[in-house]
Amino acid sequence: MLIPAWIFLMDVPVLGSGEHKFSFNQDVVVLLLIDGILFHIQSVTAYALMGKISPVTFSVASTVKHALSIWLSIIIFSNRITTYSAFGTASVIIGVFLYNRARQYQQQKIQALISCNNKGREDQPLLNADMLQPEK
Predict the structure, then answer these.
(1) How far apart are CA 12 and CA 125, in angstroms?
(2) Residue 1, pLDDT above cutoff 50
(3) pTM here?
(4) Which of 18, 26, 55, 79 could form a disulfide with 11, with the two C-beta atoms 3.0–4.6 Å apart?
(5) How far apart are CA 108 and CA 111, in angstroms?
(6) Longest C-alpha distance within the chain, in Å?
(7) Cα–Cα distance between 99 and 91 in angstroms, integer?
């Protein structure tokens, strides 16, 4: 069983004494339960999503999620915008744009190859008609 990191990072009375006392109350327990439930839902969603999209697409989406969380912290908590966060966000936006363009290009090439191979026929059989005839 994993021990939550907050036990080691907060001054819990059982672990020692300090200037700030921490006490368990109903609000802390409820917040920890909500956090655990949301983490479980996120894990199940990620697992289900991995079966439907490629790992690269999942990684790109995860990178966008991290960039959005940085900008949400800047907006909500009035954190300072650093050169690194601005550069990182610009890199993420450019990378996602290039990734989407590359996927569109790849899909166009695949569609072109399919249409060239079909030569205008929608339902071309995989085997020639003479190969389907049983040998006599």
Answers:
(1) 71
(2) no
(3) 0.54
(4) 18
(5) 5
(6) 96
(7) 12
